Amino acid sequence: MKKAISLFLSVLLMFNVTFAEISVISEDVSDFDTEKLTLYKELIQDLFYKDVSDKELYEAAIKGMFSSLDVYSSYYNEEQTASFEESTSGHYVGIGIKFEGNAEYMRVVKVFTGTPADTAGMLIGDYIIAVNGEEVKGMSTTKVASMIKGEEGTTVKLTLLREQTLFTVEVERKQIQAESCEFQVLEKDIGYIKIEEFNDSTYTEVSKYVQALKALQMDQLILDLRDNPGGYVSQAVAVANHFVPKGVVTTLKYKNSAKDKEYSSVLKKPYFKLVVLVNGNSASAAEILAGAIKDTKAGTLIGTTTYGKGVFQNMYNLKDGGSIKITTGVYYTPNGTCIDKVGIAPNIEVVEPEAQLQRAIEEVKKL
């Protein structure tokens, strides 16, 4: 039996996340296999104690196919696609906070500067008790986030607990571009940039801080990539142009070698005496940047071995609003090393998180 499925997609190339317009024709499958799938669907609908629609079961089957490939390949429905695109772009309508859940409520872990939450006086450490009067105890962070977000210009009421004080704030929802970086000056003459993820604005943010350091004639820099899960390869490569000398940053290799792509830095001479902090949660695009810095000896890596995600994915948006994300290749560091499931070992291992920054300060002074 042959099925023809047309998937009409829009084009948006971002090196590791690609939205493309294609038409996919499935390969021949035997009548037996198709009949078996139909049989299982009907068995579930006949025997399961709740009603399950054809759509739910076929969607589950599709999810199963992609999840069986590796831990990175997935099928997303329309709602999940919107959430994924929002998380990778850092652009959304909301109030400008990050929070984490516990057994009771949601704790605010970041308030972005200049956002409605900042204007409303929300602080790191505040606990979100209720949203629009509905208690959030026991809810997932995804559920609470969806309750806080909404149409631009509307408001949301948050019941907060700060120390022993319970109070309510009304916050207007606005377009938010989440900051991906933090910047500090340590000990008067050492710059510190922490990149939390590589989203749409990362290169712009890093460039702003780099120019500020140069204007102050400060050439000692600590780049913190700890707990950075990755993001857009395009942004990591762009950021590398501030630190990695002219030459290869990374090479992406596909099943079809004709698609292989090499990305390079055009920086003539690195300006900074550079130390990079990494740990076991530094992954993907963060490892591309760290690997390029280590291989080219542009800086010293301090911390623990990185996560080891040496593969990249392409993402295709479907006509129905859903999408598929699939691993399409492997990337290599400038020295031709594949770090998948291995990670990048630091030049100087420091296991205790509390000691890593202090060691970085000591080492950057020696450079």
Account of the 3D structure:
The protein is an alpha+beta fold and 367 residues long. The chain folds into 3 domains: 4-87, no CATH class; 92-177, Roll (Pdz3 Domain); 181-313 and 327-366, 2-enoyl-CoA Hydratase, Chain A, domain 1, CATH 3.90.226. The protein has 9 helices and 23 strands. It has helices spanning 31-47, 54-67, 78-89, 116-119, 141-148, 202-215, 233-240, 285-295, 353-366; strands at residues 4-5, 12-14, 17-19, 24-25, 74-76, 91-94, 97-101, 106-111, 127-131, 134-135, 155-162, 165-172, 174-177, 181-186, 190-195, 220-224, 247-254, 261-265, 273-278, 299-303, 311-317, 323-332, 348-349. The strands form 6 sheets. Strands 7, 8, 9, 10, 11 and 12 form a 6-stranded antiparallel β-sheet that branches. Strands 14-15-16-19-20-23 form a 6-stranded mixed β-sheet, with helices on both faces. Strands 5, 17, 18, 21 and 22 form a 5-stranded antiparallel β-sheet that branches. Helix 6 runs parallel beside helix 7 and helix 7 runs parallel beside helix 8.
